[in-house]
Amino acid sequence: GTLKVEHEGDGLTDAMLQEWGPWMDAQIERKFGSDPPPLVASTLNFSRNEIGDEGVRLVCEYLQAREISVQMVKFFKNSIGDAGAWAIGQLLAHAREPVHEVHMSHNLISEQGALSIFESIARSKRYPYHLERAGRRDSQGLTPVWLRMEYNCIRWALIEGRLEQTQIRWCAADSRDGWGPKDTSPMVCMHTLFRSQKLDGPSLGVGGGQASSSRGRAVQSPAMQPVDPPEEELDVDGGAEEVPMYMFLDASAVRRFAADKGSAKERLFTFQGLLNLCQQGHMECTPPNDVSMPQWLGPVEERDRIVMVITDTVLEELASIAEHSPNDRRQMEWLTKAPDSYLKRSHQWGILEVLETAAHTQLIKLAGWEQRAKELRISRWALRNLDFACLWDSQIDSPGKVLFVTGDDSLCTFAAEAARTVDGLQRVAVAHVHKIDRVFASDREHGGHRLYEAAQRPKANKFCGACLSAQIMTSLVLEPALAAAVAAASPQAADPSLDLLAALQEAQTLLSEVRPVVEFSTHPDAAKWVERVDRARERWQATIVRHAQYARAVGERARVRWPAGAGAARVPIARLLAGG
Fold first, then answer.
1. Which tens digits make up the pLDDT trace of 161-173?
2. pTM to 2 decimals?
3. Helix-then-strand count for the chain, H and E
4. What's the CA gap between 202 and 154, in Å, rounded?
5. Between residues 513 and 392, the one the model is more confident about
6. Residue 128 contacts by C-beta under 8 Å, 6 or more apart in sequence?
7. Contact 36, 1 (CB under 8 A)
């Protein structure tokens, strides 16, 4: 039987977890009966709580006593120390089946706790493990356990010798399936950010060495050398590129985002909807200093943020539209000058920037496409804005960091056509704002529907179960859009198999809506059906992701330097909004 345990942001403490075991027993009996089959928890999520070592021990001991296997363990953003890390190590070593992923970032683990996890993995001799579902494997069908331990209190250099003694094979990568070397799986794959630590706890000095006096700040520890992986498999610069996702808005998108309350009802992607999420703690943002945020939000990492970008070119076009409409004129004056306007409030919450592009005087990426834009009645401002977004993306090493949002169907058509020959557009996803809203409204897999509903309310008393971040936007909007762009650019674009990809995405959405009905059905085969549904969804999602990865690979062909006169300067928002 398969189950999923979700307690993210529920405010749980060690004392409350004293009652979790009996509660869990009752849930299992209700779903599987008094004599349950062997159970597998696909996800065990206790992230963003107030759990310490005792709480982790209680959970791990319960799982081992009931012989419940766990595939993904999430305890990030808690207050877990070395005793809790030891309990996780015991779970890794003694669970009925190998654990696939362990997320322990943003806790209080020191070198001792890190060592206990690694030594438990080495002694167990069960990693790498055989992977039976979708995912990367070596020639023998093996894959490593994925381990997230960044932003703890670990001085890796102090335990380097002890780790070598364990003879554990490990590597670092940006993603779950990015491990190396290619032919033989290591035992452990850690995220490339493992060296980023918040050294605000005393070092236990395991293995010798003098503890640093740094406190309360993220630092880069000296790099550990892996046992087997070649040097090129590691990120020697200390982690992935720390940039947010940039969501460029054109004039049509700004007008829809700024629609009055009545016409914006039941939509997430409006300025008010996103501000609601920020104020609730349901969007990764940087709130004003005088605002206290819910505990579940936790520290915000730059790569998790979504930053809307409005260029001065967009403000020019809005001003031109306002000249012919009194309503638009009043709205434009309020947006750019009122102290409580959507633009200024969004900037205060760290989800909006206004960029000056005066030096961007000529088309670079989209040169030669002026006539087609004119045929589709796309304004010169919109064309310049899309060209600038492509240039902006070309300066970011990591793919999938730029999304262009529009409310103009013609611009979506133009982007699809241009992507066949303009390499830059195969890295920049172009999406219609209404389609983004529909995708979030129908998503039950990544928390999109919960965020869609939360955006309709200014306040929230509890965590809705999701937080709007770059990762969710990538999964729901950016990767499917890039895959579609590459498919359109492919010589086999007329191949019926492309229709199958769209059908898979539609089927994923449909099954996510049907699954809860099946899961709580009283039919004796309900558990079997749920398991088959989950396996099918995993296979389909793997297919969709492979298309998206191909899109990124094609996009990597476009790497250019900023030409003279094409630069962008970030200027204070007040200057642009006030027109000074």
1. 787 777 788 888 7
2. 0.52
3. 21, 18
4. 10
5. 392
6. 138, 142, 143, 144, 145, 185, 186, 187
7. yes
Amino acid at 538: E
Coil vs helix vs strand at 389: helix
Total residues belonging to the chain: 580
| DSSP H helical ranges for 53-182 | 53-65, 82-94, 111-124, 160-166
- Residue 177, pLDDT > 90, answer no
What are phi and psi for residue 345, nearest 5 degrees?
A: -65, -40
Task: Look up residue 474 and give its DSSP letter.
Answer: I
Backbone angles phi, psi at 142, to 5 degrees: -100, 155
Residue at 129: amino acid letter? Y
Residue 85 CA to residue 259 CA, distance in Å, equals 49
Q: Are strands 218-220 and 129-130 parallel, antiparallel or unpaired?
A: unpaired
- pLDDT band for position 424 (cuts 50, 70, 90): low
543: helix, strand or coil? helix
Say if residues 63 and 92 touch (Cβ distance below 8 Å).
no
549-573: pLDDT as tens digits:
554 454 443 333 333 333 344 444 4
Of 544, 9, 4, residue with least CA distance to 293 = 9
Distances in Å between the Cα of 181 and the Cα atoms of 2, 104, 135, 487 are 32, 25, 16, 30
Q: Coil, helix or strand for 181?
A: coil
Structure tokens at 484: 């579609």
